[in-house]
Here is the input.
Amino acid sequence: MRVRVTVNGVPRTADDVWPGESLLFTLRERLGLPGTKNACEQGECGSCTVLMDGEPVCACLVAAPQAEGRDVVTVEGLATGEDLHPVQQAFVDAGAVQCGFCTPGLIVTVADLIHRNPTATDAEIREALAGNLCRCTGYEKILDAVRLASARGTAL
Ligand code: FES
Ligand code: FES
Here is the structure.
């Protein structure tokens, strides 16, 4: 089947989509956007987080046909040309990236959090990130990155 979806502001069409295929697969394998990571494929890790109509979702849990006519933003859609999104820059500056596998999902989640709540408390940050697992950093550097982005007045 054919799925039409706007991705990062650009109307895209994916052909030969299997009705049970995940949006994650469609983004990565059909639309050439590998930034969104596939770690668990079960909705447990958040590495595949994208925004769909402005809401964070696990792309591995969204059937591609459900995205028909929707607006999807992936991590590739956050930077402006060669300029990193401020949340991406904050992760770099805070040293919050190790293997990087969790990072795209975290970046999308944090960009959404700061957009919704620019002055999030630590408790609110921890709650917002509860669905994003990181096996490397111990989370402290990630919290530092969120605080840094927030202090810089970063918005999506
Ligand atoms: S790959 Fe989707 S939540 Fe883990
Ligand atoms: S940096 Fe490796 S999983 Fe988070």
User: Anything to note?
Assistant: Residues 6 and 71 are 5 Å apart (CA to CA).
